[in-house]
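Quick start: read one record
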Amino acid sequence: MNEIQLESMLKQFFIEDIGDGDLSGEALFSQKEKGSFTLLAKENGIFCGELILQRGFALIDPSASVDIAVNDGDVVTPGMVIAEVSGTMQGLLKGERVILNLIQRMSGIATATAKAVEQTAGTRAKICDTRKTTPGLRMLEKYAVKVGGGYNHRRGLYDAVMLKDNHIAFAGGIKQAVEKARAAVGHTVKVEVEIETKQQLIEAVEAGADIIMFDNRTPEEIREWLPLVPAGIATEASGGIALDGIQPFAESGIEWISLGALTHSIRVLDISAKVITNSVKEVVHHVYHGNA
């Protein structure tokens, strides 16, 4: 993860949420009063978000102390302590919502990815993500996929060529599209071609594609067509693959399975926080799952 980019992102997230100041926290507490959070898992899953906790609270309160009890990729269970965070009460209250939103989402993605990877056991298939990410959160969401045991597809339009149906139609065919792309980007950038028919598959092979994506094809079709792909050309299945229906695709012999559902429609992992205020010596339990 690019930590310089992460800090810039966190600053923008805090600016959006805090604005000119936290009316609630600043009305109740001085800048010097101290407190602490205990973050707890509320359900089974995979934790992701160490750097968010470390960098996030430090940005709001340089005096904050973050003691993380689990690592990215660790399995968590209900009631398990994720972290203890101490600092000024104003700082903790300003940072908690943004930080919890991020670690809950990232942990949800890591958890969904781990479940997807389980369905590929005993096959050569690997799980990867897509560009169907939340605008502004791509780096974090793709990091969470890796934490869950998956792989990253291209990060954007800039790091690989993917020739989809409209590219091919505009270029006049698969052969023309591949030739034009290869001439433009050079030998260090891979060229992937999306196909939907057996004839398109043959054309992509003849054009010398590096990767061939079987788009919206059934496991049976993939199994039948794979012998047409020579060794050295990677194969990928994508489109309409449900998170609970991965195994048949993995067993088809495909090499990669890309899933937009890992990032565009996952459920966050429920995480709560206990707030201990030193001034009044009482514990107030907050569950941050759907609360404002």
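Residues 119-264 form a domain with the TIM Barrel fold (CATH 3.20.20.70).
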